[in-house]
Write a structure and sequence with these properties.
The longest helix has 57 residues. The chain is of the alpha+beta class. It has a seven-stranded mixed beta sheet, sandwiched between helices. Helices cover 47% and strands 24% of the residues.
Length: 535
């Protein structure tokens, strides 16, 4: 063997030795990693087991019914309180065995809500009647559940509770019945007292103290009459017995009459009608005037240091849009959405201003029954503008104008197109939006996203006006996850100028985002730059 051949074999043997050493080292490393992983898993299993045992110990000693379910929504644990209430065994209850315990009228609704939450991984909350084993009575419960998710956003467990709220529901019903009866009973003597006071005013000389006292009593009686009417309306709304007499009327004339009526009772504030389009509207004139009256009285009440109220009524996009602007104390953003709730009053005003907090709640119900919407723009210390919108045709008209069903769509409420140079959808929402328009526009957006295989959306809300809050939950729970499944990765959202719209936007995104990266912007160019740089 020549020296070069010998050296070559030595070199080859050295390579083999190094490879054997490397493989041995790799094997030892893998063995070590396996042992470490096993130890971690065993430790986690012990910790988890210990945690579950502690959870069950706590759950068995709380007054609520506590349960857990797997990722598919099948219940795998109930606490002791559940078995005591239902009278069922563990074998009868596990899985979906809770269904026979629900009131037949609540069963389908509960199944649909639970299935939807499980599918979307969204929190679950519902009220239903649950059968008690001891006497067979169906009692109202509040059911809640939250998902436990892993680092990838996948649901691995559900934790839920059932709280007995039957007494609360009964008390609410009794309260509504009492308000209804009391309001009816009070109206009869109130009418008599009002008649006697009016008679007294006619019999007393206007320049006497007695006349002044009777006049003040009459004004307070009018206020009492208004409060009783509000209570009666609320009881009707809660019982579903509010009657609406729909017929055509001149909306502009109704607005002027409502303003004149309030103006006569308020000398300090000048109510200015800056714009009032003439239009025939088919609705309940008295109820619409009640809304206008409530908005005006509310504006006067909360602007004690101002001297004017500005009213506008315009026809926009086949809708009547009415606004009442005051220059008073204003409202903080966190209080805006709750102002139309029953009995709600902003904390720092409840001691300064009289009232039950019912006027706006009643107004919102009247507007909803006319398929309209309402919203507020306000700034603390500068005043508020209350808006309501009524579709002239009786419903929000969504008109398809032009589309190729592939790269673009144009309607009277939204425009969108696929921009191949940027590989994103350019979406522009137009005007007044509601649940129906948001759902239709979002589904068109989803369709174009899929057809063009793009992962970015430029969502421009600059021209959105009003209140689409009813669509926020739907957007967060169903539409955003569907967009993510379709390939959405980056979503640039340009703010609307409307406070209500901004709050709805945040609610829509905050509910569930998954792996989608979203960002809010006030300027469209800034949004375009962010979207262009997004990978």
């Amino acid at each position: 063997m020549s020296l070069p051949e010998f050296n070559a074999q030595v070199a080859e043997l050295e390579k083999l030795r190094q490879e054997v050493a490397r493989l041995k080292e790799e094997k030892e490393r893998l063995a070590l990693e396996t042992a470490v992983h096993k130890a971690i898993l065993e430790t986690n299993a012990d910790t988890l087991l210990s945690g579950l045992e502690q959870f069950k110990l706590i759950a068995d000693n709380v007054p609520a019914q506590v349960w857990t379910a797997d990722a598919e929504g099948s219940v795998d644990y109930y606490n002791k309180r559940y078995f005591e209430y239902s009278g069922l065994t563990s074998e009868e209850s596990i899985g979906w065995g809770w269904q026979p315990m629900l009131h037949p009228d609540d069963l389908q609704r509960t199944i649909e809500n639970w299935t939807r939450s499980v599918k979307k991984g969204a929190p679950y909350e519902i009220q239903y009647r649950f059968k008690r084993a001891s006497d067979g009575a169906f009692r109202w419960h509040l059911g809640k559940a939250i998902p436990l998710k892993d680092s990838n956003g996948k649901v691995i467990k559900w934790f839920g509770t059932n709280m007995d709220i039957h007494e609360q529901k009964v008390a609410e019903k009794q309260k509504d019945e009492f308000l209804s009866i009391a309001s009816h009973e009070l109206k009869t003597p109130l009418t008599s007292v009002k008649a006697f006071l009016q008679l007294g005013q006619k019999m007393i000389a206007p320049d006497t103290k007695a006349y002044s006292f009777v006049s003040k009593a009459s004004s307070q009686l009018i206020r009492l009459e208004s409060l009783i009417s509000d209570l009666l309306d609320v009881s009707k709304i809660n019982a579903g017995k509010m009657v609406y007499n729909l017929e055509p009327f001149e909306f502009g004339a109704a607005l002027r009459e409502a303003v004149e009526s309030v103006q006569q009772a308020n000398e300090k504030h000048q109510i200015i009608i800056e714009h009032n389009d003439d239009v025939v509207y088919d609705g309940d004139r008295l109820r619409i005037e009640q809304v206008i009256n409530n908005f005006l009285v509310n504006a006067i009440k909360y602007s004690p240091d101002a001297d004017k109220i500005v009213v506008r009524s315009e026809v926009q996009q086949n809708n009547i849009v009415v606004s009442v602007q005051d220059f008073g104390i204003g409202i903080a953003a966190e209080n805006l959405t709750r102002l139309f709730d029953r009995y709600y009053r902003v904390d720092n005003t409840s001691m300064r201003f009289q009232g039950l907090g019912l006027g706006l709640f009643i107004s919102s119900e009247i507007i909803k029954r006319h398929n309209g919407s309402f919203w507020i723009e306000s700034e603390p210390g500068k005043g508020s503008t209350f808006f309501f919108l009524l579709p002239i045709s009786g419903k929000h008209e969504l008109i398809d104008l032009e589309t190729d069903n592939q790269t673009f769509y144009k309607g009277n409420f939204i425009e969108m197109k696929y921009v191949p140079e940027q590989q994103w959808l350019d979406v522009n929402w137009l005007g007044y939006q509601n649940l129906e328009s948001v759902q239709k526009g979002c589904m068109i957006m989803l369709d174009l996203l899929q057809k063009n295989n793009c992962s970015k959306v430029l969502n421009d809300n600059t021209h959105v006006v009003g209140n689409w809050s009813e669509a926020a939950d739907w957007g967060g729970e169903y539409w955003f996850p569907a967009m993510q499944d379709a390939g959405l990765k980056h979503f640039a959202w340009i703010y609307s100028l409307s406070t209500f719209s901004r709050m709805s936007a945040h609610k829509s995104i905050d509910i569930t985002m998954g792996k989608v990266t979203a960002q809010f912007f006030t300027e469209i160019e800034e949004a375009r730059r962010w979207l262009s740089e997004a990978d």
